[in-house]
Amino acid sequence: MAKEELYIGGIFIPLSKSLNASLTKSITDIQEPDKRKATYSKTVNIPNSKEAAEAFGGLFDLNLVDSSFDPTVKVDCRYVVDGEPIIEGYCQLKAIHQKHRTDISYDIVMFSVLANIFKDMGEDYLDKLANFNKVGVTPPTADTENQLSRWNHPFAKSVQADSWATQVYDSSVSGFIPFAYGQGYVYPLADYGFSTDLNDFDYTQIPCAVYLKEYIDAIFAYTGKTYTSNFFNSPYFKRLIVPSSPTNFQLDATEILNRQFQANTPQFTSTGTTSSGNLTLNGIGAEDTLIFTNEVSDPSGLYNNTNGKYVIPSAPLQGLYDINVLIDIAATFVPNTATAVKTTSEVIGQIGIFVNGVQQQAKNFYITSDDATFISGARTTTTPPVTYPDGDFNTSEKWFLIGNAVAGDPRTGDDVPNRYLLTLNNILLFANDEVEIRVKAGYFAQSSPFTLTTNKFFVDAVGGTYTGNASITINTGAFYNKVVNTYPSEGSTMKIEKLIPKNVKMKDFFMSIVKMFNLFIDIDPNDTNKYIIEPRDNFLTEDIIDIDEKLDEGQDLTIIPMGKLDAADYHFSYKPDKDFLNETYTTTHDDRIYGDRKVLSTNEFVNKVKKIESIFSPTPLAAPPNSTRVLSTIIQQDNAGYPQPIDHNMRLWYYGGLKDGKAWNHINFVSVFQIPFPTTYTQYPYAGHFDDPFNATEDINFGLVEEVYYDDNINTITVTNNNLVNKYYSKMLQEYTAKESKIVEGMFNVTPNDFKTWDFRKIYFFRGAYFRLQKI
């Protein structure tokens, strides 16, 4: 008879009868790990004893006088049979049975917490892997070692090229480390509908992919678990990548806000007020910097409100910007006599945007006071807010050619508000570039035709002329910028969190990998926090255990032919998507999904269809006519047949490395108005469902496609049937559908040690035949 021991709260509880706490384990838990139970519960009756009364009284606040206790308390529980732990978890006191005062027993529920990585993932989404700090989980190495953010890297054309076969940037060591498959990220060449000729590829429009192994390792670090897997560490698996569309690179709202500033309340540097000093007579004076003293918004401290300069502090914030200045200008005219009743003068000036001291954009302004009148006894008057912007006169620049007369007065047009908006569009600003706003102006006497005079600035009631002074005032104004480029610029940081598929749960992502490669997952018997993970055919071993003597010959054996055959048809496929080539393939080939596979059995008594579908979508390969550069293609077409980017589902590719092909240009378009800087390559970083588009030996589709979208005019296309179904499912399906296949059910004398040590990887021999364990 088996020896049973029960410990509750560390206290040994004597048992006068067996608890009969039976357990079950099944290969289904290994083959379909997402369905594995996270807890096992068993209700048992505990007879009364001195130890039980003392333990329950202290642990559950049990009072036998009034039969009260606390049912919400969770207490550690350990149930051992013949020295083997059967249940290790916790228990709850559910009920008390009492006859008379001494005949007492207790109902407890024992819970055994079973290792289940899917429970540990919970409903958490994949993007939590970028920067996680889960309570109770300590990554096995440095804080950043198992976080995807470790692979944040400089966004630059050279860094992209390095990722193909040379090196990748590791932020945990603040430097580059040698290239290795399965490590970090890579920028494969693909067609997302941005390149119009498929020869020039802007570096901001090339996808960045994270190796699938990085996601797997991050998931295990997130859950606090580890694994052993020859498959996950194989050269084949380390080539698999999860690409991200270049549209994901775009700056988010926070990044845009951090690149922008806005300031108002201008004042002149020379005076420290909103008004200038006296303007130069009959000439344009020196430039004066406007300082906008009030910062309305400046999250990154880009603008200095003490010197008026907007500065790009570092490479991550460099890029294309619009620079804007808006000001309202008025002028004050001061005669040198109190008898003056009218001014016949004007102010002519210019607003300029300067970058690193060099004027990049300018706008002229003109202020007249012909209609101004003087209040008796006053020495000054200020013009009404009337100005004439550039558009009112085409020859305004001639006003700055001091000493040259202008034939006729070019100032025409109606009075307009004195507000000027000056914009410098699409300017590329680099780290440490400085932008400021400067104003210059002059004070001129009027005459017709225009000539320069020395004293005809003011007149009195009888026509006498006088000199005087003028100044300009800018009471209202704003200085601000806008981000033009929606993509990060050269030298900024590519954050891996931007690349992680959105709205994808970890458990769905991981289970999709399990389905694709027919992975079997078991718990290491020596470490409940470690998992053994291999494809089914590699998971099963040839080790043999002879259990013939354990068979209970007195019980019947039940034989079920083809017992594992649960479907007539097996349909393997990726998730359909709406991009042009996927829809074209589905339309052309009777609603088939690109790369799907159907396996039919000959059993006429089973009519169920079993679908095994990945949450990834397939990616057709395509190339222009006579091109040897074949690309994974995710595009839409407009009405004219031109390629366009499209939102799409998550993809999985095989990174084949650098391949020979038609020459192409790796472009850095610094501005739409500037010349691109190309680097030409005759090799390209290939990625797709084949390991090589012309000489394939691996295919991560489920089945062979009916059609590819590139030709064999230059190179012969050799495809392969070494796909997912043939590689990872065919042997299992053959066993399921073979007429000789059968399930045998019988009774065996299984000890607790047998229960613990018998696993599903080995072969079991009895009755002269060999079997795989399915359930015990």
Number of strands: 47
Coarse shape: elongated
The main pleated sheet reads as: 12 strands, mixed
Mean pLDDT: 84
Q: What's the CATH architecture name of the domain at 255-483?
A: Sandwich
Q: Which topology of the domain at 255-483 does CATH recognise?
A: Jelly Rolls
Structural overview:
There is one protein chain. Helices cover 11% and strands 36% of the residues. With 776 residues, the protein is mainly beta. Among the domains are: 4-114; 120-157 and 185-191 and 202-253 and 492-530, no CATH class; 255-483, Jelly Rolls, CATH 2.60.120.40. Strands 16, 17, 18, 19, 20, 21, 23, 24, 25, 26, 27 and 30 form a twelve-stranded mixed beta sheet that branches. The protein has a six-stranded antiparallel beta sheet with strand order 2-1-4-5-6-3. Strands 10, 12, 13, 15, 43 and 44 form a six-stranded mixed beta sheet that branches. Mean pLDDT is 84; it is low at 134-145 and 370-416. It is built from twelve helices and 47 strands.
